[in-house]
Each structure stands twice: as C-alpha cells, then as structure tokens.
Design a protein that fits this description.
9 helices; six-stranded mixed sheet; ATP-binding; 2 domains; AAA+_ATPase; P-loop_NTPase; single chain
Length: about 240
C-alpha cells in the first residue's frame, strides 16, 4: 500500500518546555487517522510541522516522498489543510474566498468551486460576507478551502469545532466519502474520542507531547468498549493512575 505521509522522530520543544518528543507514524493511501489527545498535548504542533509552518529540531517528515524541510512547495501541492482557525477574508463572500484560493490551482474552475460549496452545505450562503458567518459556518468554509484543490492528503485540526450535531455528521460523511471514493487520506486532530471513533480507521494517542500508541481502530476497540476507554487505559499505563 502506498505511503502518503511518514513522520520519523519528530521533536519540537518550545522555550516553556512544551512541545512534542520522538513522534513517529505513517499514513497510507485512503487512511483516516485520528490524532486524539487533550488540548495542549501537541496535536497542532505535529500538524504545523507536517505543513511546513514550523520546523522540528530533530525530525524527518516526508509527504509523497518529498521532504518538508527542503521542498515545502512541492510537498504541499497535493495537500489541503485546516489548522486552528480557517484563513478567511471576512470582507469577501464565501464564493470569493474560494475564488481567491483557486488562483493557486490552475485546474480549479467555477464548476469545482460550486461542487465544494454544495458538498459543505454552504452554497445557499455563497454570496454572503463571511464576517457575518457563525463559527460553524466558518468551519464549513474552512473545510471547503481545504478540499478545493481535490488534494490527496487533508490535514484537519478540530474540523467539527462549532458545528451542531447535523453539521458534525455531514462533515464526517464528506471525509468518509472522499476516502472511500477517491482514496483521499486524512489526518484529523480532536480531543473528542467519540468523533474520532466514528470517523477514523486508525488512531494515534498523543499525551503530554508523546505518542502513546498508534493502532487500527479495530485493534483499539478489541479489548475496549469505546475509544474513550482505550485512551484512558493508555494514559493510565503512562501515569500509573488516572486523575479524575
């Protein structure tokens, strides 16, 4: 199976001592991998390093065989991302935001823009200024921007933040459909175990900057009734006890 992303010994420490240490994992074509951990555990740092937005002190990150450190532009040609907050021009409409992004991708035309607007359920609001959007609507537009170029790898940081139940289910369905029909790979960070469990086929447990485990969802749930139980068992193994 084709390896899309490979992270080896990723270490990135900040002056306050926080960061990530010796993170290693890989993603295969069509995988939906969940990075599960509490806020501040290092999930966003991992994603930023993969996207070339920050650099590890000791690491090797390759995407489609290209090294992020030495060739970030070529590396990101087939990558879409939504990290922290969507990069939105609030004085523009949703459609014009997508048109601005499309300027970087010659193959993206008006038909593709309309497809993405409809897929993320914001087509009826496409002419409205984004400054009026709710948090959930901005998240939908952020996802639309991330998948606009029809990337082969999509990196999403808390993609359902601000969405209601229906919106969360719709985003989950988009992710699963792209994976099943196009072989798109996803790396999704979340602190919500139920959402990772319902969306992903593999899970990486990140805690205090360390990767505690990387398993298929099937294996993680083999001896645990829920992913939440699996997460707590891994944290307990590390701490020796769980603080409630």
């Amino acid at each position: 199976m084709e390896t899309i992303l490979e992270v080896k010994n990723l270490t990135k420490l900040y002056k306050n001592g926080r960061g990530v240490k010796n993170i290693s994992f890989s993603i295969q074509k069509g995988d939906i991998v969940g990075l599960l951990g509490p806020n501040g555990s290092g999930k966003t740092t991992i994603m930023k390093t993969i996207m070339g937005l920050t650099h590890g002190s000791e690491s090797s990150v390759t995407v489609f065989g290209n090294d992020v450190e030495t060739d970030v532009e070529k590396t990101l040609e087939k990558v879409g991302g939504l990290i922290e907050r969507p990069a939105i021009f609030e004085h523009l409409s949703a459609k014009d935001n997508l048109r601005m992004m499309a300027r970087y991708y010659p193959h993206v035309d008006e038909e593709r823009i309309q497809q993405v607007l409809e897929a993320t359920r914001i087509s009826q609001y496409q002419k409205e200024k984004c400054g009026k959007f709710s948090l959930g609507m901005k998240q939908r537009l952020g996802l639309a921007l991330a998948i606009l170029s029809d990337p082969e790898l999509v990196i999403l940081d808390e993609p359902t933040n601000g969405l209601d139940i229906e919106g969360t289910v719709e985003i989950r369905e988009i992710i699963k459909k792209m994976s099943a029909e196009k072989g798109t790979s996803f790396l999704i960070a979340s602190h919500l175990a139920p959402e990772i469990e319902k969306t992903c086929n593999k899970v990486a447990i990140v805690h205090d900057g360390e990767l505690l485990s990387f398993e298929t969802m099937e294996e993680a749930l083999r001896l645990n009734p829920t992913l939440e139980d699996y997460f707590l068992s891994k944290v307990k193994d590390k701490r020796g006890s769980v603080l409630i």
